[in-house]
Amino acid sequence: MQITYNSWTKYDLALYFTLITLIDSRLAELETQNPQLIGLRQQFHAALQRYDTAYKQSTKSFLTEVIGQKDTARDKVTKVVEWVARYWMELPDEEDAVRGRRVYQPFKAFEYRRDEALMAQNAKWQNIAQVYAQADRLADLQAMGLAALVQKANTLTAEIAALMQQRQTEGASYMKGEMAAALEQVAQYIQQDMDKVNLQYQQGRSHKPAEDGGSETPVEPEAASEA
């Protein structure tokens, strides 16, 4: 009998994690004094912990630091755009005040906050950028000297989104590799025990007495004729 674990690549990691978690729970509830089962249970639990560690490490990618730096830069840029717009709203010239209101309005409409999750910030800024791409809003931005800053925020947002996707892809690949290694570790552990049991079984059959229904160890033809 041979244990294989190649089929794991056909399924989603979440499915496998759910499966091994359930198996681990069942093994933990198993009452046994069998040393092989106890050893298997410990080995399986170690494999599950290895997967969990791999997942946590994958989220600590070096890309996370780069993403954080770009997010900080975007926060500063968008804060300047928002604050300048709010100050222009207070200017005595009505035309300037109207420009300020039009530039500030998307921040309020989309409830843009710099303390939100990155995905939320990305989505909301992309909505704001679409508004700013309209001809009249672009004219406002240019008149207020904010067009370059808005373009900078657009670029940073695109870079952040791309890096987040890259981090997710690399993290999934890393987890798959670790998961494969963990499953292989468990499979090899079980295979060793099965090989040992099979060897003991074969040895037992070859030395089983004939009166018990077994067969004695075969005798070579030459030795039988000499006797």
Computed over alpha carbons, the radius of gyration is 34 Å
Helix and strand composition category: mainly alpha
N-to-C SSE string, H for helix and E for strand? HHHHHHHH
Envelope shape = rod-shaped
Please, could you describe this protein's structure?
This protein is mainly alpha-helical and 227 residues long. Helix content is 77%, strand content 0%. It is built from 8 helices and no strands. It has helices at 13-29, 35-58, 62-88, 94-109, 118-132, 135-143, 147-206, 221-226. It is rod-shaped, with a radius of gyration of 34 Å. Mean pLDDT is 78; it is low at 1-11 and 214-227.
List the helices and strands and how they pair.
Elements: H1 13-29, H2 35-58, H3 62-88, H4 94-109, H5 118-132, H6 135-143, H7 147-206, H8 221-226
